[in-house]
Design a protein that fits this description.
3 domains; alpha+beta; five-stranded antiparallel β-sheet; 364 residues; 16 strands; 27% strand; Immunoglobulin-like
């Protein structure tokens, strides 16, 4: 996205997998501690997974660096020509990125409802493109990327109005995070004050999740975090992954994290209607990608799974977590310079299921 005097002058949507193909050496190495957090990253971060940490300053800086490496210095021109129309990539190459904007799609579908079913169809087309075209070939995202570009070009004014009309709620829900490079500390403080950036604070605990099931199940998960004092009274609650602990007296607390998984009947009906409209019959592969069927992907016990979540709890040094419940697997504690991180996996094996992870929290 290109801005000139606060006006959007160019907006292009491309497949986020493309840079890994035409600039495979554009990578940021992980430190030894970061490697423990992300063992599947093989020691480095690429463009497709540049927002690993969940904190705007870290992820924004990484994505800015990776974009400039991918489109400015490390790209293979022959590979680039095969993937992206020259009329598009000339608008993308050799740019000095001023910032990165992170947007939560679920909030935009809340205030622009027609986007929800459109995004479902894009996911359907992406998952079933080989069946729709009747052949297996590359450029699997070409059709839906083209349609997404047309949609946003045709509807950006209406989307902008929806954002402006609901801006206060979007900000409160942390629906937009902004990273800006080379700006004053005053500007950074203003962004943080208005919940437009997420930086690690010793007054918060951060509960980040990553979908490791390689499917489209994010929208089916409702997550709630609750904190109870030693007397059993609820003192904190959120659905937004950040719990403020400043102001809580020293002592022992009990934390419950609820993962409620439900596939809405309306989604199932819509996908089945698309299946009929496009004249195809989905296999288990396509159904599992769309979250309609369980998958054996990452299964270690022979049980198919609808959802796999790799989670990271970032908490400050004056907080201790202990007595973790048995629902999680592959859990562990990792020290990073600014926090301690508790990692765990949660797997969903039924269409309608709630799992609860519990732990004790001691604030000193």
């Amino acid at each position: 996205m290109t801005l000139d005097k606060a006006r959007i002058t160019n907006l292009e949507i491309i497949d986020s997998y493309y840079p890994d193909y035409f600039a495979p050496t554009a990578r940021i190495p992980l430190t030894s501690r970061q490697k423990k957090l992300f063992p599947l990253a093989k020691g480095e971060i690429g463009f497709i997974a540049g927002n690993k940490f969940g904190f705007t300053d870290m992820d924004g800086k990484n994505l800015k660096t990776l974009y400039e490496m991918s489109f400015n210095t490390h790209y293979d021109k022959k590979k680039l020509d095969k993937l992206i129309n020259p009329g598009v990539y000339t608008k993308l190459l050799h740019k000095n990125i001023k910032g990165v904007v992170f947007v939560r799609l679920d909030l935009f579908t809340k205030y622009f409802p027609q986007l929800e079913e459109i995004s479902w169809e894009w996911q359907f087309v992406n998952a079933n493109i080989d069946l729709i075209r009747g052949e297996v070939k590359k450029d699997k995202k070409e059709k839906y990327i083209k349609e997404a570009n047309l949609f946003f070009h045709d509807n950006w004014k209406a989307l902008f109005r929806a954002v402006v009309n609901n801006l206060e709620d979007i900000i409160q829900q942390r629906g937009v995070n902004i990273y800006l490079s080379n700006v004053s500390q005053h500007t950074q403080d203003t962004l943080e004050k208005h919940h437009l950036t997420t930086l690690f604070s010793t007054g918060n605990i951060y509960f980040w999740d990553t979908n490791v099931a390689n499917n489209k199940s994010d929208m089916f998960v409702q997550k709630t975090v609750e904190v109870y004092d030693d007397a059993g009274e609820l003192v904190r609650e959120t659905e937004r992954d950040i719990i403020a602990i400043h102001g809580l007296p020293s002592g022992k607390y009990h934390v419950k994290i609820y993962y409620s998984f439900t596939i809405p009947p309306a989604y199932i009906r819509y996908i089945r209607a698309l299946e009929e409209e496009y004249g195809i019959v989905m296999t288990e592969r396509e159904q599992s990608i769309l979250g309609l069927a369980p998958s054996m992907y990452l299964s270690t016990d022979g049980v198919p799974r609808y959802r796999g979540t790799k989670s990271y709890v970032y908490f400050p040094q004056h907080v201790r977590l202990e007595n973790f419940s048995e629902w999680s697997s592959a859990s562990g504690l990792i020290q990073v310079p600014f926090a301690t991180v508790y990692t765990y996996n949660i797997f969903i094996t039924n269409k309608h299921q709630t799992k609860i992870l519990e732990m004790d929290m001691i604030i000193s």
